Amino acid sequence: MAKILIIYSSTDGHTREICLRLKQIAATHNNQVTLVSVSDGNTTDLNSFDKIVIGASIRYGKHSKQIYEFIKEYQQILDSKSNAFFSVNVVARKPEKNKPETNPYLQKFLKQITWKPKKLAVFAGKIEYQKYKFWDRFMIRLIMWMTKGPTDPKTNIEFTNWSQVAEFGQVIHEM
């Protein structure tokens, strides 16, 4: 049995949903799994965990500043543990951009940090136009138009491949 910490940054809640699924999968293997928002990460004793997984969503092409700050502050501890990082972004809906080595947002992120996660994953996110405020809806529709994605403001589409999430849950268990 391992003690696993999953830290996440989620803009609209979908990354948290993915983390909950990963927690469920890891727990089926008798692991003790703790799920914490990055905003509460500073109150968590990272040294008490065997494995640390970080998940972060993209908004307007960037991961949250809190994720960068967290990684910078705790890189030494992260390096000393089994660890993983995953990114959630809508561009991963495209088959040619849904792997760590082909996803532009994940590759950009990895170039901006000095931490080298031992395991990586990328998952397609979710678009919920009706949930967004006016400006976000407008900007995301524009981005989707430019990338040939769905633009109907009444659309809610989940692109996440849950089988891929389950496979990563197994990777977490085995690392």
Following the backbone from N to C, one meets helices and strands in this order, namely EHEEHEHEEHEH
Q: List the uncertain runs.
A: none
- The total of beta strands comes to 7
- How many helices in DSSP terms? 5
CATH superfamily grouping of the largest domain: Flavodoxin domain
For the terminal residues, how far apart are their CA atoms?
Answer: 12 Å
Given this structure, which CATH class of the largest domain is correct?
Alpha Beta
Q: If you consult CATH, what is the topology of the largest domain?
A: Rossmann fold
Morphology call: globular
Assigned CATH architecture of the largest domain: 3-Layer(aba) Sandwich
Total separate domains: 2
Q: Describe the oligomeric state of these chains in a short phrase.
A: single chain
How much is the radius of gyration in Å? Answer: 16 Å
Strand content: 15-25%
| Fraction in helix | 25-40%
Adjacency order of strands in the biggest sheet: 2-1-3-4-5
What structural class do helix, strand and pairing data support? Answer: alpha/beta
Mean pLDDT: 92
Mind summarizing the main beta sheet?
5 strands, parallel
